[in-house]
Amino acid sequence: MASRIRIRAQLKDDYCEVKALMRHPMETGMRKDQSGAAIPANFIEDVQVLHNDVVVVQAYWGAAVSANPFLGVRFKGGAQGDVVKVVWRDNQGDSGSGETTIR
Amino acid sequence: MHKGFIRGISAVLIGLWSAMLFSETDGVFDEYRAMLGDDNPAIFVIFDGEEIWFTPAGPKSASLEQCDLGLGPGVVEGAYAQLPRYFADVDRVQDVEARLEHCMTQLQGLTPAEVHGKPYSLRGDLGTELEALVAWIADQSSGLAIAPMQAHAKERATYELGERLFYYRAGPHDFSCATCHEQAGRRIRLQTLPNLTTHQGAAEAYSSWPAYRISQGIVRTMGWRMRDCMRQQRMPELIMGSEATVALQTYLAVNGAGAPMAAPGLKR
Amino acid sequence: MQLLAFILFSTAVYADEAYNVLLDSMKDKNFVTVERLEQDELQEFCSQPRSASVDQARAAKLREAALKGVLIPKDERYLGDWQLGEKVASNGRGLQYSDDPEQENGGNCYACHQLDPKEVAYGNLGPSLSGYGARGQSAAMLQYTWTKLWNTHAYNVCSHMPRFGAAGILTEKQLQDVMAFLFDPNSPVNRSQP
Fold first, then answer.
1. What ranges do the domains of chain C cover?
2. What is the average pLDDT across B47-68?
3. ipTM of the assembly?
4. Angstrom distance (rounded) from CA A65 to CA C37
5. B141: domain CATH number?
6. pTM to 2 decimals?
7. Which residue among B172, B188, B245 places its CB closest to the CB of C95?
């Protein structure tokens, strides 16, 4: 149950709809803990959605995106069985990815 | 610029902004919900719940496929909308969580202690099996009218009990459910409070739980919501599936009967 | 007379039933015990819809008892430090099983009331208290406000407001600070423009 990304990819009419739920604290760096010290910034900076290893969506995020981001994108040209992958990288150098096949 | 003029303009602007904020306190959130459309991160939790239902577990290595939620063993579609209801095999009125506890102990051989051990997620958790199951079961009633059974004498008595509990003031703060939920147009800080004594308020509340709680990143059930209200009322811990929680949920469901279920909902 | 007895008995029976159900349905958690489920006379009397008719004679007796129980600070020193009072008003913690019993309780005034007009996150379960200090600091005004905070039922039986003094939610010092937050001309309650 501890996967960092859950993905679903469905064909609808003439496009493929991808929904992904990422587990990430998306810390802005502005919050302070009980002792008054700032909680270090820890947020996703870079997101890519790949279709059969080709980047179809490239996103640049920042501290304004809330924790556990829910991403929804649509792209043309997908077919059933194709592989869709979502990859993210955060400001601390950590990364996560997940993949699924288009239904 | 003249100080008074600046003050005046500031007052008007802040007044307008506050009015926008408060005219429909959930207005900004409604916009957000509209943007999401049918999307709801709960979809992933629903998948989990369905998987769990069909997966053998417990000492008896059985799945929940034979679990009777009121419409016959294994019939899940439409079941949530008719809960809470009377079950002859236990001679009591049960909500979805009490019923799942029954099935988990009877079919799967889990002990009550195991079922009650950790039904709800704690801060930072990624969701429990119960939350996933309830999310899926509720989704199987999405769009159907709330129609808790009220034919059996015990079902009606449960409603009456729920109403009395609703007004029961206790604890150091003298809070009852009614303290917050008896009047229209109220909010606590900036959180609007539905009037649960009316059809509209009760329907709003009952149809939208279980819900994906954005601030927590997980699905929360109505049973959890009741427990957490009690905690904030300075009461002790409400036991999952207990008579009191079933009665209060019955009170809500009957008051909201007729409105369509829209769960899992999406909440802040 | 018999009908009255029957109605009173039924109400008592219903109250008992609710209590027993709650006892079976709840369990102790951390420092919060099921002892809290036991109602005192006031709570029992007030466990009904706002629209329900009230036994005025009993209400009067409860009001009197509430008034009598109010503890006035020594030398009638009602006013403390408004800056501390502001913290008490903003603090929503205390007495929940998730709270630290070592920490002081808050009054959570903003949950229900508007206070500092610049603070937009306020509830409306109670009336706005912005500009409260405009009423002045006469002995009567100070005493009235103190009494209201200590035990609101001294004036308004079955009000939804907690009994901050009588129930021991806030200490005398905290109440003095909250009084200052309400009355002090320098307090944001009185000084801020919206």
1. 2-38, 74-191
2. 97
3. 0.93
4. 43
5. 1.10.760.10
6. 0.89
7. B172
Q: Tell me which chain A residues have a C-beta less than 8 angstroms from the C-beta of B44.
A: 6, 8, 21
Residues 42 through 81 of chain C touching chain B, CB cutoff 8 Å: 42-44, 46-50
CA distance C97 to chain B (A): 7
Candidates A12, A22, A23, A68: best to mutate against B (most CBs of B within 10 A) is A68
C25, C95, C125 member nearest B244 (Cβ): C25
The answer, yes or no, to whether B and C have at least 3 beta-carbon pairs within 8 Å is yes
Contact flag B161-C18 (C-beta cutoff 8 Å): yes
Mean residue pLDDT of chain A comes to: 92
Alpha carbon separation from A12 to A16, A70, B38, B100, B163 (Å, rounded): 6, 19, 14, 35, 47
Range of the domain at B201: 34-267
Other beta carbons within 10 Å of B18: 13
For residue C175, give the H/E element and its range.
helix C172-183
Of B213, B39, B215, nearest to A18 (Cα)?
A: B39
Q: Alpha-carbon distance B232 to B110, whole Å?
A: 31
Instruction: Flag if B48 and A1 touch (Cβ within 8 Å).
Output: yes
Interface with chain B: mutation pick from C90, C160, C170, C192, highest number of B CBs within 10 Å? C160
Are B165 and C18 inside 8 Å of each other by CB?
Answer: yes
User: Is the Cβ pair B161, C169 closer than 8 Å?
Assistant: no
Please list the active-site residues of B.
229
In terms of phi and psi (left: phi > 0; alpha: psi -120 to 50; beta: otherwise), the region of A56 is: alpha
Is C74-191 CATH 3.40.50.720?
A: no
Render pLDDT for B195-209 as a digit per residue (tens, 0 to 9).
999 999 999 999 999
The answer for residues whose C-beta is within 8 angstroms of residue B73's C-beta and 6 or more apart is B65, B66, B67
Strands (E), chain B: 85-87, 92-94, 186-188, 191-193, 211-213, 218-220, 237-238, 265-267
CATH number at residue A10: 2.60.40.10
Nearest to C115 by CA among C137, C140, C88: C88
Can you give the pLDDT at residue B7? 58
pLDDT at B15: 47
Domains in chain B: how many in total?
Answer: 1
| Contact yes or no for B217 and A23 at CB 8 A | yes
Q: Which residue of B has its CA nearest to C39?
A: B170
Range of the domain at A63: 5-28+41-101
Is position B28 within any domain?
no
Count CA atoms closer than 13 A to C6's CA, side-chain side: 3
